[in-house]
Design goal:
six-stranded antiparallel beta sheet, 680 residues, single chain, nine-stranded antiparallel beta sheet, alpha+beta
Amino acid sequence: MSKSVPFRVSLQRDVVVLLLVFGALILGTMVVSTRLIVGRMSAQLIDAALDQTEDHLRTLFRPVGGAVGFLGKLVEAGELDPDDPTNTVEVLRVALTQLPNISSVLLADEDGVETLVIQREGGWYIRHTDPARHGGASEVIEEDADGVRSESVRDLGYSAETRPWFHKAIERYHSAEPGVGARDLVEWTEPYEFFTTKQTGVTASAAFRSADGRLVVVAADVALTEINERASELSNAERGAVLVVMRDDAGNWVVVGLPDAEMFPGVDPERYRVLRAPQDLGTEMGIALGKYLDRYASGTARGRAVRMKADGRTWWANARMVKLDGAGKVWFSVAVEPGKLTPGLWVQRGVVLGFVALAVILMMRRVRVLAHRFSEPIEGIVVQSERISRLDLEEHGRITSSVREIDRLADAQERMRISLRSLVKLEGDLRLARQIQQQTLPDGWPKIEGFEIAAWGEPADETGGDSYDVIGCVRDGACWRVSDGETCEKMYVLLADATGHGIGPALSVTQLRSMLRMGIRSGEGLGEMACAMNDQLCEDLVAGRFITAWFGEIDGASRSMRTFSAGQGPSLHWRAGEGRAVALAVDTPPLGVIAGMDAPIGEAVQLARGDIVAVFSDGIYEAMSPTMEQFGQERVERLLSEHKGSSANAIINALQIAMIEFCGERPADDDRTAIVIKAV
């Protein structure tokens, strides 16, 4: 492989060669053209250019007002409703397809419900804003030319009620006389920057009363690029220049259509985005046309061509005003050098075409070299990127290039492919681990007379370090066995919280759950099971790892409960007779810390009707608000007090709602698990 060179050096070298050749050809063409152009400019041809320009501008703007009026009639007939975004999008799509000079169409009501449709590069961009559904956020649908859609909800900081087209339409509606036609309601904004595309343009909008009585605004955007293209087409057709202007809010001229003409050197209409006055274009012609437009608007120069000097040459110019729907107005001026309309123009065109043809031939030859050097490896990288986007992460051959940056890009892409393949495998493993863990959680449990039980768990990662279990038992002679039915006489409840969250802690709490079920099946008591589980975890867990756990044993016949807490707390006992919550003591350190630890099981506690025992993992108490405030035990006790008369399920639901309202958009830092047991 030949020695690579920096992409910048190679590109600059080739582009400079092309620019020097093309610049020399253009310069030679301009010199020859200047010598050939002679004669006087015809006032009749200026008028013809004005007529043609007026026709073009009417063709550009008039259908826009008609489209707004037609869509307004659909609103009044109840066939177009902002609350029905599906139908609205289809109708607006048809409008955009039929009128390619419109860059986007919008529909918004006075409640802030708004739908925007933009056609771009063969695809579609759709935004629907409904404050009742998403607050300040908007639903965004992007569809490419192949029909591939992506949907998301984004907080764009957008509100239709703050846009100038909305204000214009509402003000016009309230000031209009009764019985005014749909087109007479249309108002045009002053030029401004569009919110979504960041293009500069003008908007035609009108407000209509819908079938259900709401005010609905229909708007259509026309980008300045459309006006620029029309002005450029007319300038090229007449060998002159067409300048299109409008008034801003202060009544000053601003250029909205700028021709691609030598009369404005240094001003690129394709990149013209900042609205300026004609005098601010930086040329003598801009100053001259600005003064002439002032005279035309005042009536002192209306209806006749005038002669003026600019850039050392003589020009003839005339202007005209086109009234749009509503109160909108567009002014335009045509300026032509007299000699450009003479027969010598044909000779000039031939010379220009000859030089351009020669330049194109030379450029084509050089482009072949550039295409081989740059395009081939870049196309290979694009194909590989498309495969990666489809998660086709198999190797399809090494891409090489003589350009250093492209070669490094190919290497980076290959490393990315290998890394992504590892990440995809890891993601699959995480999904499998989460699925296995979720399958261990009970999706239902037996009932025990006199008690209601509800539980909820939410991991902070794909797999969590919290777990819970509810196990029913029935008497079998002198022994107890695990019940497979819907009712039981005794019930064991577990809440376990391993240090950290992820795959490791998930395996640990799953192991603890399995050991509990094995202990119950072997007929061991709660204390013996806790001691055995602690000793086993001391052997299995690495240093610094442990599990906090709470065990509850409910006896349905005596309506009593025995509990054991290994570092899990505080657990709360709402005493209905006293009307207060009492924190249950922690009995031992967490499991897996001290081998040979005793497990003192207290006496059974009678639960009166209305008593509640609530057990929570640390993720509940330590949940943080956006202002870094903890949820805390006090809020949990207040929640139990407020919902003491509700069912166990209702208390769990109230806890979830309280957590969402308290934490807002802040993600969970730790797993959250809760169990509520209520005596009924």
